[in-house]
């Protein structure tokens, strides 16, 4: 498979790239810093190619699409992993809406636009997959207070997942949202589970067999309540 991963320079994204490369897949490791993309790609064994891609920049998405088209002519899977603003310091009753808007740019509009930009290349694949890395924090079923920017952005990403899955079902796309669980990364902080386990939860959805689930929300291959 040829797989593009956003935010591939550190955390869960980097480990997703490493696990996919270990399985023999071609990985397009993207990062908003060209240097970070190159360093991370060089640190992973296998067929890993660095690509600069800030998910908030439309021109970056278009340039990435041109590069992928020229080099590979198709894309088999897109992993929308990059995200920001786990705003534990905020509450909905007093939220700074500029912080919320900024989170939405990276966590919702970025992956949405990138998906649309890469759709023609995904359509060239015989088994296209889109994996939106979400969080149970976006689950309406268990929604409480706190982390308003982050939670809202992930709820919205989940809704987008449902829409894309429905609109692309007849083209044999598998589009799913995945929660990696609480993972010990820069975002998750200490105490979470190892990054390899969180990444494996994502890789499961990337490598689903034909006829696998679409329009679902999963952690470790098991459904999570919306
Ligand atoms: N860690 C957890 O406990 C946990 C739990 C549930 C869900 N998740 C989800 O898992 C995913 C990965 O999280 P993580 O824990 O690995 O986070 P992380 O360690 O903070 O890494 C975030 C990654 O996203 C990248 N990024 C941020 N803004 C970007 C942009 N505009 N364009 C491109 N890349 C950008 C970062 O790049 P820079 O290095 O340039 O900043 C970095 O590579 C996220 O979607 C997160 O919401 C994590």
Automatic annotation (TrEMBL):
InterPro entries assigned to the protein according to its UniProt record, in alphabetical order: NAD(P)-bd_dom_sf, SDR_fam
GO molecular function: oxidoreductase activity
Pfam families: adh_short (PF00106)
UniProt keywords, alphabetically: NADP, Oxidoreductase
Domain of life assignment: Bacteria
Family: Belongs to the short-chain dehydrogenases/reductases (SDR) family.
Protein name (Swiss-Prot/TrEMBL): SDR family NAD(P)-dependent oxidoreductase
Organism in which the protein naturally occurs: Bailinhaonella thermotolerans
């Amino acid at each position: 498979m040829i797989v593009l991963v956003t935010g591939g320079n550190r955390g869960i994204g980097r480990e997703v790239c490493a696990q996919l490369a270990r399985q023999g897949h071609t990985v397009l490791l993207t990062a908003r810093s060209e240097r970070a993309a190159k360093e991370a790609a060089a640190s992973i064994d296998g067929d890993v190619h660095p690509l600069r891609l800030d998910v908030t920049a439309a021109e970056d998405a278009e340039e990435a699409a041109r590069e992928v088209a020229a080099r590979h002519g198709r894309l088999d899977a897109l992993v929308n992993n990059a995200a920001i603003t786990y705003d534990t310091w905020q509450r909905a009753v007093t939220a700074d809406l500029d912080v919320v808007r900024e989170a939405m740019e990276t966590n919702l509009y970025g992956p949405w636009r990138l998906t649309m930009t890469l759709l023609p290349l995904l359509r060239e694949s015989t088994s296209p997959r889109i994996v939106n890395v979400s969080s149970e924090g976006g689950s309406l079923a268990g929604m409480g207070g706190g982390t308003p920017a982050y939670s809202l952005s992930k709820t919205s990403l989940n809704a987008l997942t449902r829409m894309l899955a429905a609109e692309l079902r007849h083209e044999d796309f598998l589009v799913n949202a995945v929660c990696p669980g609480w993972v010990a990364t820069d975002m998750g902080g200490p105490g979470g589970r190892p990054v390899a386990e969180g990444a494996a939860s994502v890789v499961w959805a990337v490598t689903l067999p034909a006829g696998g689930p679409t329009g679902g929300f999963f952690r470790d291959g098991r459904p999570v309540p919306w």
